[in-house]
Amino acid sequence: MQKHCGLMRAAIDKYNMIEEGDRIAVGVSGGKDSLALLKGLSEISRYYPKPYTLTALVIDPCFEGTETDYAPIENFCKDNHIECVIKRTELAKIVFETRKESNPCSLCATMRRGILHKLAKEHGCNKLALGHHSDDAAETFLMNLLQGGSIACFRPVTYLTESDLYVIRPMIFCDEAKIESLSKRYQFPVVKSRCPVDKKTERERTGELISELSNRFPDLKAKLLGALQRGGISGW
Fold first, then answer.
1. Which run of H or E residues covers position 84?
2. How confident is the model at residue 198 (pLDDT cuts 50, 70, 90)?
3. How far apart are CA 236 and CA 233, in angstroms?
4. Which pLDDT belongs to residue 96?
5. What angle, rounded to 10 degrees, do the helices at 134-143 and 220-230 form?
6. Is residue 25 a contact partner of residue 127, using CB atoms and an 8 Å limit?
7. Which residues make Cβ contacts (< 8 Å) with residue 164, sequence separation at least 6?
8. What are the residues facing 59 on neighbouring strands?
9. Of 50, 59, 116, 167, which cross-links 20 as Cys (Cβ 3.0–4.6 Å)?
10. d(CA 54, CA 15)
11. Is 135 helix (H, G, I), strand (E, B) or coil?
C-alpha cells in the first residue's frame, strides 16, 4: 500500500491535483481500480499537507432491471470513514433496451459521466477523482491513434466549465498488474460488473494488442507514457 500511495502522491504533486480544503468525489464502480483509488486517497489524506475530504459516488446502472448489492462497498467506506452515496439509474435500460446501441460503451460512459458530474456538485464537491491507471492511458493513446488518427489521451487534470468541476486521475502512474495484486492482498470488496459486454470492449482488445507488441518492443507501455510526457500531449 505504501508504494501504491507513493505513486499516487507523485501524480498528485506533479499535476497539482489537490488543494487545501478540496471536497473530492471519488467515482466508485465496485471494481479493483476504483477501490484502489478510494483506499489510496483515504490513506494519503491522513498525512497530506493539504487537508481534503472524500465522498464515494456509486452509479448503479441496474442491469436486468435489478439493483446491484453494494453493501460490501458501503461497509468498506464505513470502515474507512468515507461518506458513500449510491445513485440508482436506468442506464442499462436506456442503453440496451431503449436505444439498443451497437456501441453501448460509448453512450453508457457519456451518460455515466454526466450523472457523476451532477452528483458530485449536488454533494458539494469541487473535484471528481477517477480510477484510470497507466494501462488505461497507454490504451487510450493507442486507440486514439489507430482509430481516430489523433495523438491524444485523457488529461491528468481537466476543468469542466459547464459544471465548474475539476476531474483528476491520481493513479496514472500506477500499473494495473500491481493494482490487481494490491486488491488481492488487501481483499478489496470487488463487486463484479453484470454488464453484458464486460471484458468484450475495444479497450480490452487494445490492451491485448499492447501485450502482443510488447513481445517485440520491450517496455512498450512505458514508452507510450514517456511519449505523452515528453511531448506534453493532453496536459501530460
1. strand 83-88
2. low
3. 5
4. 79
5. 80
6. yes
7. 121, 126
8. 87
9. 50
10. 19
11. helix
If you ran DSSP here, which 8-state letter would residue 236 be given?
-
Mean pLDDT of 114-125: 95
Take residue 226 and report the three cell numbers written for it.
514517456
Give the whole-number percent of the chain exceeding pLDDT 90: 79
User: Can you tell me the distance from the alpha carbon of 159 to that of 126, in angstroms, rounded to the nearest whole number?
Assistant: 10
Whether 97 has a pLDDT exceeding 80, the answer reads: no
Instruction: Find all residues with CB under 8 Å of 12, minimum gap 6, and list them.
Output: 18, 44, 48, 168, 170
Dist. CA 64–CA 218, nearest whole Å: 43
* Whether pLDDT at 197 is above 80: no
> Which fold, 2-235?
Rossmann fold (3.40.50)
Q: Look at residue 118 and give its three-state secondary structure.
A: helix
Q: How far is CA 89 from the centre of its chain?
A: 19
Domain parsing of the chain, residue ranges: 2-235
> What's the pTM value of the predicted model, to 2 decimals?
0.92
Listing DSSP states for 88-107 in one string gives E--HHIIIIIIS--SSHHHH
| Mean pLDDT across 87-97 | 84
- Give the integer Cα–Cα distance in Å for 113 and 27: 9
Q: What is the mean pLDDT of residues 117-126?
A: 96
pLDDT for the residue numbered 177: 94
